[in-house]
Amino acid sequence: MEPCRAGKRSIRFRDPPSILAAAAIGGKKESEGPLAGYFDYCSTETKFGQETWEKAENKMQELALDAARYKANLRNENIDVLLAGDLLDQCIGSSFPLRGTGLSFLGLYGACSTMAEALLLAAVLVDGGYARIAAAVTSSHFAGAERQYRFPLVYGGQRTPTAQWTVTGAGCMLLGRQEQGPFIETATIGQVVDLGIKDAANMGAAMAPAAYATIRAHLDDLQRTPDDYDVIVTGDLGKLGSELLCELFRRDGVEIAEKHKDCGCLIYDAERQDAHMGGSGCGCSATTLCGYFMKKLQAGKYRNLLFCATGALLSPLSTQQGESIPGICHAVSITSERRQ
Amino acid sequence: MEPCRAGKRSIRFRDPPSILAAAAIGGKKESEGPLAGYFDYCSTETKFGQETWEKAENKMQELALDAARYKANLRNENIDVLLAGDLLDQCIGSSFPLRGTGLSFLGLYGACSTMAEALLLAAVLVDGGYARIAAAVTSSHFAGAERQYRFPLVYGGQRTPTAQWTVTGAGCMLLGRQEQGPFIETATIGQVVDLGIKDAANMGAAMAPAAYATIRAHLDDLQRTPDDYDVIVTGDLGKLGSELLCELFRRDGVEIAEKHKDCGCLIYDAERQDAHMGGSGCGCSATTLCGYFMKKLQAGKYRNLLFCATGALLSPLSTQQGESIPGICHAVSITSERRQ
């Protein structure tokens, strides 16, 4: 078979898979933010009717898959494989809701880059004929993440100025074959980048170099410029990380600020919602892509979008052991029509 | 492109990727067991010269990749993508050693099923022309796993009779294209199976139904019987889980006991090494496949092998919240020559 690699890190799909449907589920804070109208469902309380935050996260993934399946008029039996991951230890946010579904499951861990990693592999599986329909799912939950990564909420700790707010939300995209787009056109696999940032409350700075490396590789591999995209979307660099990313490109003589949007900066209102540097978590880029950007693509507002989800691959233990924070970023390009 | 699916969960590779090289790294206990001679390197102490057990795990993954690369005469630049995962929270065993390597990285979480999941996806990427050479890597460390999942070692807790011993080890396989085998011929993606086992010290029982489901699906999808294999290898069911697996097949009127071997039962000496039900952990199936079975395949002792790595998808938190233990099992078949 003809290889379909482009450059060092990228893939150009032979027959770009279609996004059959996408769905976004959000929590209470997300329902009060500027993207409220783009969610398929928002809960009015943090537990989604469950006993614990972790079970709430399970519920969100279930709701995201159900909503996407409903839109595409598909049953679980129609889905050949589901790729999912989340931030909870041992990814229990993703595996537990699949009990009893009979779905073939590939578990991923890419921290907050998981949505892009899942889409990339789902597109490979569909493009290569290994799956007819593949689902990409991910989620995060503010309260579960705070307890696991930082402090119990009841401790009432002061958040540092560079902190971000983990999004409570889940997103799901279903890829398959149909005439209509949007299509997953290309993908770029990220590398682990670590410039030595050790402050676990400054993820944006830790992830920005990884985002730069992947977007740079993407443009080089496919011989493109930022002008080939209507919008370049990063996952959760937040305000500070976004500025760093633009600055890194400026050193190459490339200005991306006009094309660049960060899901972490879009999802909360900086004035009203006190999220400091913005949103973060797997659910941040997943819900913003599956809700907001998907609707913009469908409405023709954007025709060519580069989605670059960023992840910080630290753990509480690695921080305790004095390690710096490795970052990663995977990218997929989405087009509303097949490019010539 | 022609689809290459078989049945509900399986893939039949169009042009089966070759295993270019494999390497197994082990700890001290592993160097004293019956498979000692099949490791490429064993440490005489538990930390591999590092400061912490977690950094020792990083070191093992690094050594496994280096040893496999050395055998295949490849540099990091020749590897298009590396797929890896491990048991540590946020998979820090896999991501940290990749800093500075420039390798494109896809992180996985499949608990102890990770080696099969990584091989499956690596084979998809090579078969489909998305990567020329792909690496599959995983590891586990007894001391790190005990501290994280159970008790600090210094607590000196009594181990229950159904407990297994997490293998200290790492395995790496490199897939690519060459005339010579062994080849990754088919793969079956697992589903999450949970029959309600809640005892986190009895993983074998929790994983056996998942192994049964995947092997059953594999045989059905490809219209095969156990006789089509010289050996059916499970990851770390241990003594109890292995008996349960054979019993589940007996209910179908199928006897697999003569074909079945479990890495957890092979890696330690039941009489001498006090591992209770046997070995477990990502490193258990990875080292046994990359060391012992790889050499048996190369020597022609086995020609057709079904590798079924099993994982228990629990977390300490899920157990604390009273949840039962979901299991998963992914399978790849390995042939020493191309099947007609």
Protein architecture, described:
The structure is a homodimer of 340-residue chains. The model of chain A has no long low-confidence stretch (mean pLDDT 96). By secondary structure, chain A is of the alpha/beta class. Chain A contains 10 helices and 15 strands. Chain A has a 7-stranded mixed sheet, sandwiched between helices. Chains A and B meet through strand 6, helix 4 and helix 10 of A and strand 6, helix 4 and helix 10 of B.
**Number of E strands of chain A:** 15
CATH architecture of the largest domain in chain A: 3-Layer(aba) Sandwich
Average pLDDT metric of chain A: 96
The top-level CATH class of the largest domain in chain A is: Alpha Beta
Portion of residues within helices of chain A: 25-40%
Largest interface by Cβ-Cβ < 8 Å: A-B, 68 and 68 residues
Low-confidence stretches of chain A: none
In CATH, the homologous superfamily of the largest domain in chain A goes by the name: Stage V sporulation protein AD
Identify the quaternary structure here: homodimer
Query: Shape of chain A, please?
Result: globular
> Which sequence of SSEs, written as H and E, runs from N to C of chain A?
EEEHEHEHEHEHEEEHEHEHEHEHE
Secondary structure class of chain A reads alpha/beta
What count of structural domains of chain A? 2
The major pleated sheet of chain A works out as:
7 strands, mixed
Strand content of the residues of chain A, in percent?
15-25%
Looking across the biggest beta sheet of chain A, what order are the strands in?
A: 1-2-10-15-14-11-12
Count of helical regions of chain A: 10
Q: Classify the fold: give the CATH topology of the largest domain in chain A.
A: Peroxisomal Thiolase, Chain A, domain 1
What is the straight-line distance between the termini of chain A?
Answer: 21 Å
Using the CA coordinates, give the radius of gyration of chain A: 18 Å
